[in-house]
Amino acid sequence: MRRKWFALHAVMMIAAFGADSASAEAKWPSRPVRLVVPVAAGGPADTVARAVGQKLSERWGQSVIIDNKPGANTAIGASEVARAAPDGYTLLQAVNSTLTVNPFTFTKLSYNVQRDFTPISLVATVPIVLFANEKFPAKTFQEFLSLARAHPGKYTIGGGTVGLQLAVERLSRDAKIQLVYVPYKSGSDVTRALAGGDIDLAMDGVAANLPFVKQGKMRALATSDSKRVTVLPEVPTLGELGLKNSDAPLWHAIVAPAGLPREIQQRIQIDLRAVLEMPDIKKRFLELGLAATSSTPDQLKAMIDAETGKLGPLIKELGLKMD
Predict the structure, then answer these.
(1) Largest Cα–Cα distance of the chain, in whole Å?
(2) pLDDT in tens, 64-82
(3) Domains of the chain
(4) Is 205 helix (H, G, I), strand (E, B) or coil?
């Protein structure tokens, strides 16, 4: 009899715990949500997080607190989120380097992408453009290709991240050309170097360089995006130009600690999609040189897996390390 009582009591406790968990999920969010941004305040990623966070706060009736945790190519912020409770109150706005580059460039990374995160949704994609300075002799991509093939190793090209270095490498291999890559600490450094004539070319985002294009101090030759950039409609994609293996996309996405309840995962994804469809958000992103882009969790996971499969072997071959 006593054993039966203990067994019944255990079942009741488990049922009560499950009911409490379900109730907590149903009431989510009942307190502020922290969105960790693993870069310094003030840049495009931070601006994206604050714009999206404000809209989510309005929908949820709770504050979304932007918590900047820069360092180690986003690994510091990502590690903190990986260790957080999977209750929906700590989220990470990752960039693709966080999830597809860092696992190969750090000898000891304190998080495992597959084990430690729950994918939720894409937030933005970043069109990458091949720019030339005003004195560069080629005015079109085809002219650039002819020059680069005729003079291997002559022309310099700058980039501000490992992701952009990989974009240059994929372009070089696909086009069968040899460029001299010049690494910079930031995109603003790349823009200054290209505008000042210190380098011939650059692979970079649109926003910082667009004013120089309009002033005639730079030329946009092609984009590695899958479609033409809205603010540069005359610039062809590399795919249109016959280069099918030069894609090296940059993107932002929201993930959570592993173990996030599916109901909360779906709620965040649905609300993110609604926010990213808002005209003012699309306009703000466009001003930043980004495209507001949502996805399902499964689509985001598929992107991470596919990009990891492409970039991992290339990073190992190039011997790129960040520690």
Answers:
(1) 92
(2) 999 999 999 999 999 999 9
(3) 31-126+249-318 (3.40.190.150), 129-223 (3.40.190.10)
(4) coil
